[in-house]
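Supplementary Methods. Inverse-folding protocol.

Structures were first reduced to a discrete structure-token string of length 97. This string, shown here, constituted the complete conditioning input.
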């Protein structure tokens, strides 16, 4: 089966729970139907609270368990630095060993 790649764009400077809920719904549908990788465009995001970050990491974990991946695009330096401080690779949202 061919892996489908899905693109999701967070609009605006803040990622909200509604944004993440929509993404979770798409991930759940993708995993149960045909699988596939996800690319998140975060070029407009300036702020990501800890709950949304936790949910994104949960999404990454679910995708990894389904042999899929999560890629983050367009992170500004502030967001990239914050993720690195938490030992998270800012490009793939994977935990840095």
């Amino acid at each position: 089966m061919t892996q489908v790649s899905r693109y999701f764009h967070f609009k605006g400077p803040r990622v909200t729970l509604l944004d993440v809920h929509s993404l979770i719904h798409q991930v759940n549908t993708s995993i149960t139907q045909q699988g596939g990788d996800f690319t998140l465009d975060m070029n407009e995001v300036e702020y990501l609270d800890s709950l949304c970050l936790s949910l994104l990491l949960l999404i990454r974990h679910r995708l990894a368990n389904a042999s899929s991946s999560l890629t983050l695009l367009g992170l500004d330096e502030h967001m990239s630095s914050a993720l690195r401080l938490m030992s998270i690779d800012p490009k793939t949202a994977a935990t840095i060993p």
